[in-house]
Structures
1.
Amino acid sequence: MGGHLSTLEENTMLFEEMRLTCTDFTEDVVEKLKAKMPLALQKAKGLDFIPYTVRDGAWQPGPCDGICWWTNGFWPGEMWEMYRLTGEESYRQEAERAENMLDAAFVEYDSLHHDVGFMWLISSGADFRMTGNDQSRKRTVLAANLLAGRFNPLGFIRAWNGDCVGWAIIDCMMNLNLLYWASDHTGDPRFRKIAMAHADTAMRHFVREDGSCNHIVIFDPETLDVKEIPAGQGYAAGSSWSRGQSWALYGFALSFLHTSKQEYLDTAKKVAQYFISQVKDDWIPRCDFRQPAGDDLKDACAGAVAACGLLELSKITEGKDAQAFFDAALSILKALDAHCTDWSNDYPAILTRCTGSYHGNDHNIAMTYADFFLIEAVLKLRGDTFLFW
């Protein structure tokens, strides 16, 4: 057929060239994962909860909501990642055990909210796409319907429950992927249209001109007028919570992958450039990029999420942009590996300098979802093209 290579083919070739430049680093981390994760798995066996963090060398559950705790999909997702990395059945079996445990959350229901994408797309959704398990398909479609049911027709997916009627948060950019999957799987465009309506609202009301982001926007649920923009999990109103930045960075990149809408790619690039400008000194994100000078509170999880987003951006952008995004992702991952990990054989988690919220008491802790994104980034560097999202 001849002719020039398509832009997609050229981008794919460039990404392959870039990732092959860091094979030694990638394989070093892979070997550490293979040595470390059997311990993580062993310490989870027989627990009646899904691991979230670590205390005194043992797994601990989330602090509230029981089986409905929003991160409970990341542990089975992590197990599916290790199954892809090693092919070992023990990881698949643990992923399936945790997925079955999550069924109880559908019965609880009242504690479920916007994070059902985090809970089921990377657990049952990954199971179905890898194995064809029909029960997993049903779980994932049910979760998508629950998320779609939270849509306010003015253009946003409601966050949380109780009196949070007009609340929306930047984290939900990652949950939209459950809706994109549902449209692709069922052929029903409603899921995709809901996701895009929320993403469009997030572009207008969450992402600032400089690429920084709000965490929470409270709308009038009858008019979409903005009532308040509180600090959320960041330092203060108008500041820049780094994990919120990473949710936006990766979330908009994924929305572009699912829809090909150019504005989503442009937004992801703008957020990415801001993120890079804030971490380039040591490549480990502060909890909030606008926290007081001299405050050393970090969030390794924000770095792991952003690295995944930057690697995806390096696949779908061209030339200098692609190289800059790739180099930033690799710099973050190397910094996390060097300064924020515990690779010992007596501690079940990997990333340790994680922060739940600036004003909370969950500082310098481990979180399973941080490890999920670290392993996801390593899989990308290895050339695994399976997209959990």
2.
Amino acid sequence: MQTYHVKLESPIHQSYKCNRAADSLDIDVAKKSVHEIKVCADIDSDFSIGLILGSSGSGKTTLAKKMFGNDCFKTSLNETLPIIDQFPNNFDYENCAEILSGIGLTSVPCWIRPVFTLSNGQKARAEAALLMTKNDLTIIDEWTSVVDRTVAKVMSHCIQKYSRKNNKKIILLSCHYDVVEWLNPDWIIDCNTQTFLDRRL
């Protein structure tokens, strides 16, 4: 077990309107602008799927950067190229089609158009598909926020199936608690409750 500790602080702007807004509350705004997360977790033991949950602003992204480095969310997605041309060279057409279809990007025209022409939801699926093929450890932030819940379910099933079949470690961040059922993660860090649940036991 290792303890991960992050502290989020937001400066309070001093202006007439900001002061009026702060004065209208029955709370100490200065205290509310500081948020700390402290959680003990075992992420070094073998796993396939890890999940960091929490409401928006709960510190999921900051915690992930603390755990895995500031560059953990960098992607090599090239928006000027079609997604199907961005998979590693050892992925043949059938491999690419299987991953894209499995993650809910079933429209073939979306595969062959430049990524910048896709909708936000389509782009999110394309990026998740690419991330899954690039690294042994993949970290995907808020992958279901710009898709409906049916697509989120399909994406979740595809990600966890791909991870376990190909011996990949994938960590996902989400504000949606319904993904727990679909992903069946090996461990969960909940930033709202600052708890770690090891489901490998």
3.
Amino acid sequence: MKRFYKYNNKDDKEELPVRILTMLTGILFIGAGIFLVANEGVTFLSVAFIVGLMFVIAGIVECLSYNSYRGDNVERSWILNDGATTLVLGGLILLNRIAADAVVPMILGLWVLITGIRNFVNAWEHIEEKGNDFYDHLIIGIINIVFGLYVFFDGEIFNLASITMIGLCIIVQGINIIHVGSTIRIIKPTFIKTKEEMLEAAAAKAEEAHATAKEAIKAAKAAKEELKSVEETPAEILDPTLAPKPGTQTDDEGQAPADEE
């Protein structure tokens, strides 16, 4: 199901720069990653400041994307968490808390893996719709998960240089950042839309309303079933304090059972 967002001039002015900035940050990540892959003789310490600064900028940009993104609240939270994680990693790199060539790829690999899981879970939540958002998140999620896992098994496969692994992680994360930027869609004002665009927007709104109504019906049905189950369940089962205490049960004639000798 496509996402459409309400247009107003203020939102347009706020979202367009954020979208461009987010996508430019993703492109910068990919370019930096390619540079690191092509220069495997470079040590991480020699580029740590630049990489850390890039991470801080990317984290801030992703946090700004959270405010401009118009998707559901769950996905907005994932974007904010991803941006905060990137920002923290950048800060640790700048403070020289992550510097060992053998450790950095593992940390970045875990970072990429978590991002991949986030995208995969998001795709799974929209599996019934199978729209563009589903396939976007699914493909990017799989790429992130594969590269994230590969970092931990590289020694038994190709045994690439640490700086190469770092570059690959940055490239993959750059793809993810570009995707985040692409979700910040700027909608043209109504007066310059074509009839086809208006019809498409109206159809999307109708589809979204229909999906919301279906969810509401499911929730109401589940609540009714739960209410019926509670009404049909004996009170002593629901409240243990109402159950007869041992030795106080009566037989069919209303007499308490005789004590055993």
4.
Amino acid sequence: MTAKSSFIQAIWSRKFTFLFVYFLIFLFSYLLLVAIDFIPEPISEDSEEVTFVEEVVSTTPGLQTEVIQAEVEIEEVAIVLPTEIYIERLDKTIDVLNPTSRTIADLDSALLDGVVRHPDSAHLAQDGNVFILGHSSYLPNVFNENFQAFNGIQNLEWGDTIEVRSDGEVFVYRVEKVFKARAQDVTVPIAGDDKLLTIATCNSFGSTDDRYIVEARQIDTKVL
């Protein structure tokens, strides 16, 4: 009989002792790993959900937006979208469109029916910047009045009010700053802890023309 066969025969004759010792070693090793927190624990349903939210991506060659990445808790916030914007100094009410597509063709198409809330910007019940763009034109005759939607916003002054209306509420903003800028120099931060509004003239989402920018801060809300 070979030495290998003798070794196997010796183990087999003490198989129950061998299995018992093996079980004790396995149990001891498992308890040791648990004690040093090496074994992963299952995810609890009550654990805090955290995600990385990229607030905006690049928009168009003619208008840049900051990409702000932050670790935030997921919150249940009802989405409140604008339906109209009323500019008191200009005595003008304009329909607001809320397209979900980010393509230049779709955004430009929406501008034919009013002004457009950029789909990457905040909604009205959310902290951040509501970013609305609209056409302006000083031609004596236009076949679509929406080409002159934001005519005159360059004449707004600090303290003027702008109302942005949803289906059930009015969000009142106070003008803080009005300026003209080259499109390629404009950066609109979308995220933040404040409730802000930025409106801008826009010949096309892909254009690099100069545009007028109005920055405002929310000061009140009213129920319709």
